[in-house]
Structures are given as structure tokens and as C-alpha cells.
Amino acid sequence: MQDHLTKLLALSREIGRPDRQLAILGEGNTSTDLGDGTFLVKSSGSSLSNLDESGVSRVRMATVLAALDDETLDDSGVKSVLEASRADASPRLPSVETFMHAVCLGEGGAKWIGHCHAEAVMSVLCSTHGAKPFLSHIFPDAIVVCGRHVAVVPYIDPGLALAREVRRALREFRAAHGISPKVILLENHGPVALGSSDTEVLNILLMLDKWARVLGGTLAVGGPRFLPSAVSDRIDNRPDEHYRRAQIGKGAN
Ligand SMILES: [Zn+2]
Prior knowledge:
Helices cover 46% and strands 13% of the residues. By secondary structure, it is of the alpha+beta class. It is globular and about 55 Å long. It starts with a helix and ends with a helix. The structure holds zinc ion. Zinc ion (ZN) binds next to loops.
């Protein structure tokens, strides 16, 4: 667990770095699956930029996931679930987005999750276009790092309601594409990165941030010229891109 905790703190601080403009104050949260029925998730109210051990909760996956099917839970019921989900004696409550993290780790099959309120990505998600500009690609590296397709969730109340919609979106995505997404875009809210490693989560968020900035930049010079679907499919399936994807995941570029 210590290795996971050390990496989670490092990942969180990377996402929270002020110069990255991915999250400020208490925005965003991170998690990782410990593989023993529990996972580590940022506590409520702590900041990614200076997260330390006291700002991380270890919670039971089954307790959190069971809440998604309990339609009777109100706000105080949700708080009780979060209190009961803690696997260690900790005074801090896990983030209210713990439900979404459990879904992404459980149903999404990811080992590491990073969620933030990236300024450039939000500029698109909060626009009249919503997530639509991300449904087609504009350059190859976004396909390699962020995946051929992204999942989208329209705005909904953060917490349990959001987690239920994320679960629905993950199931729809898997039915359509046979795999889990690397990116879920929460409209009027922010992105979620689903990775097999801490490095992959950071890479996804950084590439998505660049993608959003390039999209914004294209609007100043006539608008984006989207790659044809067949070209994006080809890049997604090229053997050399598979190799590059594996190398990037190991920290190379
Ligand atoms: Zn958020």
C-alpha cells in the first residue's frame, strides 16, 4: 500500500501544480485500486497541489458501490455511507466523488483515476458546444494517448447522481466499443482520466489539456479541421502507434 500511497501523492501534486492550470484550491480528486477490495481516494476538502497522507482515505469498494443501487439515499444517507466506507480510523471523510471513483475503478477496469477541473478543457465543456468538439480528432497524439473515442456525461449533480450517470456511460461505451474509455468528459464540470498506471493518468490529462488548447486556438484561425473517421481509426490501429502507446505508458515519449 505504501508504494500506491507514495505514487498517489506524487500524481496528485503533479495534477495540482499551479502552472498546469488543471485544478486550484480543493478541485479535483485522485484514486488508486489496492486490489484487496479497498482503494485510496483523496479526502474531502484537501488540495491536490499539496496533498499529503492525512488527505487520503482508504475506503471499501463494496460499501461505496452498494450505495449506487440504493435509491432511498438522501444527502445525510450519502454522508453515512462515506463515513461507513472508511477502512481505517480516519477523521477525514472521503471525497463526495468517491462514488464516481469506485465506478471507474470497478466498472471501468482502471487501476488509477485522475479527475480535475482543467481550465482549457472546461472552456470547451462549458461552451455552447459541450463535449461535441472532442468527439472527432484533430491530431494523432490525442488518439494514441486519450483513446479513439471519449465517453461523455451531461451535467448532473456531483456525488451519487453523477456516479450513476458515469456508470451508465461506461456501460454504453463498453457496449459500443468493447473496451473502457481512457477519458470521460463531464460537461460543465471537467475531465476524468482512467489509467492502468499513475503515469498514464497524468499523460492522458496533459494530452487532453493540449487537445483542448489546440481546439481553442483553431477557433481563432477559422475553426478545427477534423481528421476523417477512417484516418483516426487507422492511427488507433497502427502497430507502430501501439508500440508508441506502450512506451509512453512507461514514461518515455
Ligand atoms: Zn469535479
